[in-house]
Amino acid sequence: MTQPIPAFALSRRSLLGRAMLVPGGLVLPGCVTAPAPAVDSAATTTIYSPAPATTSLHKLYTQLASASEDFRVLGSLEVLPVALPESINNFANMDPSLRQYHWPIVTTIDLQLARAGTGPDWHGYPRVNSDLKLVCTFTDTAVGISMWGEPVTDPEQLRGKRIAAPPRPSAVRLMTELLLRDGWGILDDVTLVDMMPPAVLPARAAGKVDGTSWNIVGPTPNGHRPSLPSKPDDPLTYVPVGQEAVDRINAANPFDLALSHALEGGPALLSLAQGLAVWDEVDPAKVGAMLEYIEANGASIPGFAANATEMAAWPGLTADMLSPVAKAFYRARGVKIPG
Length: 339
What we know:
The chain is α/β, with parallel strands linked by helices. It contains 12 helices and 15 strands. Strand 7, helix 7 and strand 8 form a beta-alpha-beta unit.
């Protein structure tokens, strides 16, 4: 049986990154610290977006609040940007009568770590959250390493390079370290420079970094696109991720990652699918309404799941990870879920 992922020690070549941490450096810009909810606000259900408020992905997630217009059983909905693992850990031990109004949008890796109660000390889940269940996949995002200049086809070429990456804690940072450590075996030979998205391009212009893992592929009105531009005089291209690297990551850790082909015409990267999760005590009628809303409206939200099959497309998904309402929903539509 695979042992829980050990806490990552700071790479001996990542000390440079410490100097670029923002004060407090724990929450992404635009993400807020999850507040302690007051009892009188419990009637509003809050959906927590892991994407910073300034990103296009968060703006897509805010459309979920309109679900209550079509499904009154949902009551009042709001969408707030709160980073993982906070959006789970801050509510895990709350009284269920209040916790039912707090729904996190989770990533592939965070759902599995949260349910197992594990993870590195800087991005972990101290409680076994087996009572947190997936409802549906919203969209796939892809994570990898992008390098400026001549295309890098062999990860060995990354040794000695400086890569701008999110500060800990961050799901993207965790994926970055897993890829470099377990997938390619070169984590100690690269310098991870802690940096937020607005600083990446100026840092490149100043010659301070050679590449980045911030070039996330995500949904846009024109399809899935990289979040950073590639200029003719300084092209930014991805280092391809092979299935062998994914297999090594999965063998070394208590979760299942998968390849993403979200970038049309581009190389395979690591999938960081994102979807809605709810706690066991959430009203089944609300879960059912949210499923029906996504089934009816997902195709009109750029990059979102457009049908029941896509709503259940989650790397490593098994029946025990799903809300009972979601299991019945997919079964009724002929979608087979392992286990």
